Automatic annotation (TrEMBL):
GO molecular function, one term: pyridoxal phosphate binding
Taxonomic classification: Bacteria, Pseudomonadati, Pseudomonadota, Alphaproteobacteria, Hyphomicrobiales
Protein family (similarity comment): Belongs to the class-III pyridoxal-phosphate-dependent aminotransferase family.
Cofactor(s) recorded in Swiss-Prot or TrEMBL: pyridoxal 5'-phosphate
Name under which the protein is recorded: 4-aminobutyrate--pyruvate transaminase
Length: 455
């Protein structure tokens, strides 16, 4: 197709810069053009069907053909296609959705701030922290601690929060005042002979040391995804968050929980905060908030944070922050409908019912000589590939092992996502047990080919 000048593939190469791509390599291989969706499947322009095993970008919880979401957008487009919530203006949708989110929040929250992406949500939270500490007369308390392999977005500030080298290198990041502490992945960072409990004590000890080194009076917040998604699907060990939260309380450090992937049922609870007993001061949500059908995200703040924000706005005269598309009536209409569907269909209950088949099925691949670790919870999982199981040595980067497996799975009709040495899987939440078996079958065939190729 690439050699047909007017093909989508050739024009894509000519005009379009993709996110997370290597443009020169892409110009040689050409893109995969996806044309339509049906349930948990998507179809390319040649009519080939793929089970979307990552819900596109972890977001299409209701699959790709939920008519009610399309109708909700259509109805709103006819009534009022665009408006905003700057100053004293608002649409009823924004109010309804804010009320719903406050009612369902995992811990008591006070206000919802709408934005268009997870990056905007995390960026707003970072700005809110500065505002809050200025209100409290603590101008030095502005640094934040995130984690190595955490992912919080790609704006200057949120790429800085993200703890992944490719998001920093040559972008001259991270920005000053954004620090990274240990990644809670025992399989990779546990030391020889170290128990999981000792690992937790060591990395939480390192967090406390960092706080003391920097000065607790300079640390505003700790940032965490309940399960780290784009860093390689990392499930922190038991006891980790309990100990982290004790440290945060000890030094008066706020907790910002990034629920962009974990929120809305992915882990078998409505929020990841419930799965891990987290007590956040701010929560960022996005993605499955609208099942990905419309770009919408939000920052939830508790009363303590809101009191600081409103006091500072009163002093200055205005809360000088706003995105053109904040609280846009179409995405909010779609999000309201999405939340109604989650409740009516008990999507969280469904995830709990089918998750064991998914997790147990995947754990059977631990027998494969190149699968070092299988981890996950609910309907999210990661398979970490290793060259040598006994030493846990990864494949050399030039082997691009996970990417090879991703392409082999694609050939078998399954979309998975290579992240470093890990292959991530997080199918739409509406997946049935029979479709889980289908997913596992495709993955098994992909892995069999991978095993033959790597031997
Ligand atoms: N936070 C998490 C946990 C994410 O996974 C992502 C995106 O994948 C983001 C934030 C950034 O969201 P966006 O890409 O919508 O800016």
């Amino acid at each position: 197709m690439l050699d047909t000048p007017n093909s989508v593939e050739a024009r894509d190469t000519r005009y379009h810069l993709h996110s997370y791509s290597n443009p020169r390599r892409l110009a040689e291989t050409g893109p995969l053009v996806i044309e339509r969706g049906e349930g948990i499947y998507v179809f390319d322009t040649a009519g080939r069907r793929y089970l979307e095993g990552v819900s596109a970008l972890w977001y299409a919880s209701l699959g790709f053909s939920e008519a009610r979401l399309v109708e909700a957008a259509h109805r709103q487009m006819q009534k009022l296609p665009c408006y905003h919530s700057f100053g004293h203006k608002v649409t009823e949708n924004a109010v309804d959705l804010a009320e719903m989110l406050i009612a369902m929040a995992p811990v008591p929250m006070s206000k919802v701030y709408f934005c268009g992406s997870g990056s905007e949500g995390n960026d707003t939270a970072l700005k809110a922290l500065r505002y809050f500490n200025n209100a409290l007369g603590r101008p030095a308390k502005k640094k934040v601690i995130a984690r190595i392999r955490g992912y919080h977005g790609t704006t200057l500030a949120t790429a800085s929060l993200t703890g992944i080298p490719r998001n920093h290198t040559s972008f001259d990041l991270p920005m000053e005042g954004i620090l990274h502490t240990d990644c809670p992945l025992y399989y990779r960072y546990g030391q020889p002979g170290e128990s999981e409990g000792t690992f937790v004590d060591r990395i939480v000890g390192n967090l406390e040391e960092m706080i003391l080194r920097e000065g607790p009076e300079t640390i505003a917040a700790f940032w965490a995804e309940p399960i780290l998604g784009s860093g390689g699907v990392i499930v922190p060990p038991a006891g980790y968050y309990e100990k982290v939260q004790a440290v945060l309380r000890k030094y008066d450090i706020l907790f910002v929980v990034d629920e962009v992937i974990c929120g809305f049922g992915r882990l078998g609870q409505m929020f990841g905060s419930q799965a891990f007993d987290l007590n956040p001061d701010m929560i960022v949500i996005a993605k499955a908030l609208s099942s990905g059908y419309q770009p919408i995200a939000a920052l939830l703040v508790n009363e303590k944070v809101f009191a600081g924000l409103s006091a500072e706005a009163e002093k200055i005269g205005v809360f000088g922050h706003g995105f053109t598309y904040s609280a846009h009536p179409v995405p909010t209409a779609v999000a309201i409908e999405t939340l109604k569907i989650y409740e009516e269909r008990d999507i969280v209950g469904h995830v709990r019912n089918v998750a064991p088949r998914f997790q147990e099925g995947l754990r059977r691949f631990a027998d494969n000589p190149f699968v070092g670790d299988v981890r996950g919870m609910g309907l999210i999982a990661g398979l970490e590939l290793v060259k040598d199981k006994s030493t846990r040595e990864n494949f050399p980067p030039e082997a691009r092992a996970a990417l090879e497996l991703e392409m082999m799975c694609l050939d078998e009709g399954l979309v998975v996502r290579a992240i470093g040495d890990t292959v991530a899987i997080s199918p739409p939440l509406i997946i049935t047990e029979a479709q889980i078996d289908e997913l596992l079958g495709c993955l098994q065939r992909g892995l069999a080919r991978f095993t033959t190729a790597m031997r």
